[in-house]
């Protein structure tokens, strides 16, 4: 009787051990694939599409030292692309630029002409570029 009980306990311990270790490799692979597919091209058009912004008319981005710039959602949201090493971009990051950024990342700057939309800012901050 003791041998049967000991055998059942051993089987249970092995089964629990295998169950705990079994699926970890698959979830790591799925997570890496999800993160990889979430990366987008580093351009204002790709950012606008990812954020669900509509419209997209050019601005006078050259006047502020940007390499590209468009306004979306009837002019309430603006996106600018800068050379990340430029003095204009560094001034914006430091809060001393000609525009006030609601958010910025890797040379892309998000600006609101009115009240900032926290959902858009949160989504922007979560973007990953290729």
UniProtKB/TrEMBL annotation:
The keyword Signal applies. It comes from the Bacteria. Keywords: Signal. PROSITE patterns: PROKAR_LIPOPROTEIN. Residues 1-20 form the signal peptide. This is Lipoprotein. It comes from Gallibacter intestinalis.
């Amino acid at each position: 009787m003791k041998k049967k009980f000991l055998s059942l306990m051993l089987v249970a311990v092995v089964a629990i051990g295998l169950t705990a270790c079994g699926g970890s490799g698959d979830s790591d692979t799925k997570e890496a694939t999800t993160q990889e597919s979430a990366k987008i091209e580093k351009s204002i058009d790709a950012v606008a599409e990812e954020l669900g912004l509509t419209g997209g008319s050019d601005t006078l981005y050259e006047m502020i030292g940007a390499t590209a710039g468009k306004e979306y959602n009837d002019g309430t949201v603006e996106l600018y692309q800068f050379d990340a090493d430029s003095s204009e971009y560094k001034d914006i990051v430091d809060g001393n630029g000609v525009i006030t950024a609601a958010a910025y990342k890797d040379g892309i700057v998000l600006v609101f002409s009115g009240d900032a939309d926290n959902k858009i800012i949160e989504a922007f901050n979560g973007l990953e570029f290729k």
